[in-house]
Write a structure and sequence with these properties.
The chain is mainly α. It is built from six helices and no strands. The two termini are 18 Å apart.
């Protein structure tokens, strides 16, 4: 491979990485459906708020990408623990694609649970029957955000720096 081709490949990988990073930053700033963003404009921050901001970048956990990568990390750990208790013969028969599918299934279950718990703590601009619908839509947005982050990670591993 010539030097020029390597430079072009590196340049395209770098640009792809920058685009994914920008998409992530935009998603972190995109509020959930019907969430009262004004209620979260309080300038006082507790130590817990600062820790959450440092770890995830979303102080109030009210953006589309609020769940982050944690559902996948938890699912990965759970699946690996389950596989650790299997016999050596059963471990040999378990294919990597089967482990990946199991991890994704567990991740979706964890994402649904985390989203519905987290949505209960948010403040919305609507009340009554509309509040239930707004919470359901916000939870679905959070679940989709977790899946989107996982997709971006897999793409960046394949096409990024």
């Amino acid at each position: 491979m010539t030097v020029n081709k390597r430079e072009n490949l590196l340049r395209s990988k770098f640009l792809f990485t920058v685009m994914v990073a920008l998409a992530y930053l935009l998603g972190k700033g995109l509020p959930l459906y019907m969430v009262d963003v004004e209620a979260y404009m309080n300038p006082t921050l507790s130590a817990e708020d600062l820790l959450v901001q440092t770890i995830s970048g979303d102080i109030y956990q009210c953006s589309v990408l609020a769940l982050g990568i944690s559902p996948y990390m938890i699912a990965s750990i759970m699946v690996q623990m389950l596989l650790a208790f299997r016999s050596p013969e059963a471990k040999k028969r378990t294919s990597p694609s089967k482990v990946k599918k199991l991890t994704l299934g567990v991740m979706l279950i964890i994402s649904v649970t985390m989203a519905f718990v987290q949505v209960q703590e948010l403040q919305f601009r609507v009340t009554g029957q509309e509040l239930l619908c707004a919470k359901a839509v916000a939870a679905l947005e959070m679940i989709a955000g977790a899946v989107l982050i996982l997709h971006m990670i897999s793409r960046i591993q394949k096409y990024g720096v």
